[in-house]
């Protein structure tokens, strides 16, 4: 009897034990995959900032496709970068340290300001990679080739529905990000950047960072002075945001004067370290036509509403339902 009891229980015990070992193995593999993916991203962040490179990439947002060239140099602790449109309207963005100059040939306008432009080529992480772990899952998806270079593919999946997912193709030799895709919950690509050619660690003369756009007849809008009241950081403005996805924290809060209006605009910037959301609050001018409702371009969604005499607009690299909920939570407390 004793032998039969042992014999009858042994298969079940072995099955449970095998499942436990399998679970431990899977858990260990997932943890190792995440650790490897995070190390790759750390290397990518350093390479994007500190390497010199000259490349041409394709930038796709929905049905709109643009070809652009980027020249990037890091010297004496300062980043220099020039972004040139190769299709559509002629435009350039030049970054020298913290000063950003945007040049638009068709409008014959030049904007100069301090700060960081939206980083198209790299992710522009505002925090350490590890700080993203509570909100995103990371794993190595495999290997591929981009711009005739070997890459490792990293998946970044959101743990909540109020964020987007990402897929990254990281150059195995240099660590540079050569391709990135922002995806919705069902895996549909909303926005994509892909290099088609790139020279890494090339000699880049200073002349490559000089703009081709400019000259007589251009209107300049300068907002780069440290003592300019338009960029004064606001400690309290009375406006508050009562809901944000977990992990989103305020990165900046300024009162700005827009080029086409004398009315000051309160601009609040929030980020979880990867995705970014901007909130604009502006008093409506008399007889002004307010904006209300949704608009979108690629992975960037916008929602506008009116609260009393104020226009509230939320722009973010998050789903449309998320920007709408954030906009609905903005209110005024004098």
Q: What is the CATH class name of the largest domain?
A: Mainly Beta
- In the residues, how many domains can be counted? 2
Order of SSEs, N→C? HEEEEEEEEEEEEEEEEEEEHE
- The appropriate CATH architecture of the largest domain is Clam
| Strands in their spatial order, largest beta sheet | 7-8-9-10-11-1-2-3-4-5-6-12
Distance between the amino and carboxyl termini: 82 Å
- From the alpha-carbon coordinates, what is the Rg to the nearest angstrom? 24 Å
Total DSSP helices: 2
Q: How would you name the CATH homologous superfamily of the largest domain?
A: Lipoprotein localisation LolA/LolB/LppX
Q: Oligomer, anyone?
A: single chain
Q: What fraction, in percent, of the residue positions are helical? A: 10-25%
**Main sheet overview:** 12 strands, mixed
Low-confidence stretches: 1-9, 25-29, 225-236
CATH topology of the largest domain: outer membrane lipoprotein receptor (LolB), chain A
What structural category do the secondary elements indicate? alpha+beta
Number of E strands:
20
Descriptive account of the structure:
This protein is an alpha+beta fold and 334 residues long. The protein folds into two domains: 43-209, outer membrane lipoprotein receptor (LolB), chain A, CATH 2.50.20; 225-332, MucB/RseB, C-terminal domain (Phosphorylase Kinase, domain 1, 2-Layer Sandwich), CATH 3.30.200. It has two helices and 20 strands. The strands form three sheets. The chain has a twelve-stranded mixed β-sheet with strand order 7-8-9-10-11-1-2-3-4-5-6-12, covered by helices on one side. The protein has a six-stranded antiparallel β-sheet with strand order 14-15-16-19-18-17, covered by helices on one side. The protein has a two-stranded antiparallel sheet with strand order 13-20. The longest helix is centred in the first third of the chain and has 49 residues, at 2-50. The radius of gyration is 24 Å and the shape is globular. Residues 1-9, 25-29 and 225-236 have low confidence and may be disordered.
